[in-house]
């Protein structure tokens, strides 16, 4: 009788433990490595001020995941990519992260969007639940210097983009540079990186900054201040819509000072909103031009036309495509269940990951950012054109 009671208690405890683990999101098939499905998630702004970035980014990644699933998935496993709206709000993103991990049981966060939004989730996702965050679009040096457990990126840091821009304007001969930037910290930190890089290339360059309230639509007074400063070059650290507002107002007021921008400026939406006012704008980008005559770019355009009709095949969709493709290439190296642990281990060993549309990526246990490379692009005849190939910016101080 005692033996039966003991066995019954052990069995009951095992059932209870399984139920608790399932409720916590740690004991489901996804967390343990499903034989048929790899469940991953992302938070992306699908509404709000930066939905114009989030929606096409999701479309690009979704097009790649759909094309992979159509050809059999990752080693026979289909990809279930669960995307939830962050509205570009850190507090809302934390709630989204909890649902993805605890309710949906994702084994990784892949191609999430937003610097402050993603960072707000790290204590829960990375530290508490040990779910890796892979290929996020966003980030700063503190994410990777030193390497953080479970966090692996493919996007050249904004600080390195700033270094590339500072070097570029100095090499173009500008002596008086004005950086026009939005006022949130994420923009300010990038803007601060222009001067050191410019001075490293040419110590005589003088760099000033002009802060603009985030989501400003009337750039008339801003352009008046720019004209009064009389710069040789203007660097725009703005969201795409605001960069377009700057360019249109500059054209209206007859300001012809050369304009440079970081990757968020180099978007199709900038051209759509600014029209002819965008002609000649220079920027750095994270991927090749979607207009290139290149087999990897053609594959991208074909998949977008097939799986995401109505979405432009532009830089932002190509960012999403590149993040998804890099994830798949690394996940394919896993021999056995695809879990949070096996993905982390695979990333630590990933070398020479070539998506064909972005820089070649290399990782290690101590290096969790795959690249520092960027590419120069210029607006000519109403479209972005690549200038040369990917290059490594000067080393930051």
Task: Summarize the structure in short.
By secondary structure, the chain is α/β, with parallel strands linked by helices. 45% of the residues lie in helices and 16% in strands.
Write the layout of secondary structure elements.
Blueprint: H1 2-24, H2 29-32, E1 37-44, H3 51-70, E2 78-85, H4 90-103, E3 108-110, H5 115-128, E4 133-134, H6 141-144, E5 151-152, H7 158-171, E6 176-182, H8 185-191, H9 194-201, E7 206-212, H10 220-229, E8 233-237, H11 240-252, E9 259-261, H12 268-274, E10 282-285, H13 295-307, H14 315-331, H15 340-349, E11 374-380, E12 383-391
Parallel strand pairs: 1-2, 1-3, 3-4, 4-5, 6-7, 6-8, 8-9, 9-10
Antiparallel strand pairs: 10-11, 11-12
Helix pairs in contact: 3-13, 3-14, 4-5, 7-9, 11-12
Q: How would you portray this structure in words?
A:
- This protein is of the alpha/beta class.
- The protein folds into two domains: 33-156 and 292-366, Rossmann fold (3-Layer(aba) Sandwich), CATH 3.40.50.2300; 159-285 and 377-391, 3-Layer(aba) Sandwich (Rossmann fold).
- It has helices at 2-24, 29-32, 51-70, 90-103, 115-128, 141-144, 158-171, 185-191, 194-201, 220-229, 240-252, 268-274, 295-307, 315-331, 340-349; strands spanning 37-44, 78-85, 108-110, 133-134, 151-152, 176-182, 206-212, 233-237, 259-261, 282-285, 374-380, 383-391.
- The radius of gyration is 23 Å and the shape is globular.
């Amino acid at each position: 009788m005692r033996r039966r009671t003991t066995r019954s208690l052990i069995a009951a405890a095992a059932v209870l433990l399984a139920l608790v683990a399932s409720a916590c999101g740690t004991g489901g098939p996804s967390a343990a490595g499903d034989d048929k499905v790899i469940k991953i998630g992302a938070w992306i702004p699908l509404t709000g001020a930066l939905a114009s970035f989030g929606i096409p980014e999701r479309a690009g990644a979704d097009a790649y995941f759909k094309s992979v699933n159509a050809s059999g998935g990752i080693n026979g496993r289909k990809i279930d990519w669960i995307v939830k709206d962050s509205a570009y709000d850190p507090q809302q993103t934390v709630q989204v992260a909890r649902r993805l991990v605890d309710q949906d049981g994702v084994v990784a966060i892949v191609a999430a969007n937003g610097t402050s939004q993603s960072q707000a989730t790290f204590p829960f996702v990375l530290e508490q639940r040990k779910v890796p965050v892979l290929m996020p679009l966003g980030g700063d040096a503190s994410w990777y210097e030193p390497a953080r457990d479970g966090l692996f990126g493919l996007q050249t840091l904004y600080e390195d983009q700033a270094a590339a821009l500072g070097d570029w304007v100095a090499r173009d001969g500008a002596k008086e540079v004005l950086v026009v930037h939005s006022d949130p910290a994420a923009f300010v930190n990038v803007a601060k990186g222009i001067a050191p890089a410019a001075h490293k290339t040419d110590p005589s360059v003088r760099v000033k900054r002009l802060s603009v309230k985030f989501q400003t639509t009337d750039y008339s007074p801003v352009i008046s201040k720019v004209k009064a400063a009389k710069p040789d070059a203007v660097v725009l650290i703005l969201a795409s819509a605001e960069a377009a507002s700057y360019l249109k107002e500059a054209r209206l007021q007859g300001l012809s000072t050369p304009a440079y921008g970081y990757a968020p400026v180099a978007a199709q939406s900038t051209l759509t909103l600014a029209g002819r006012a965008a002609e000649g704008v220079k920027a750095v980008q994270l991927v090749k031009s979607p207009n290139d005559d290149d087999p990897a770019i053609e594959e991208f355009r074909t998949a977008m036309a097939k799986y995401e009709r109505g979405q432009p095949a532009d830089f932002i969709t190509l960012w999403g495509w590149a993040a998804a493709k890099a994830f798949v290439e690394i996940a394919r190296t896993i021999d056995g269940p695809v879990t949070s642990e096996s993905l982390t281990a695979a990333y630590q060993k990933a070398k020479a990951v070539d998506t064909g549309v972005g820089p070649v990526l290399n990782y290690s246990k101590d290096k969790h950012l795959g690249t520092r490379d960027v590419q120069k692009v210029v607006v000519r005849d109403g479209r972005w054109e690549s200038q040369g190939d990917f290059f490594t910016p000067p080393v930051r101080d």
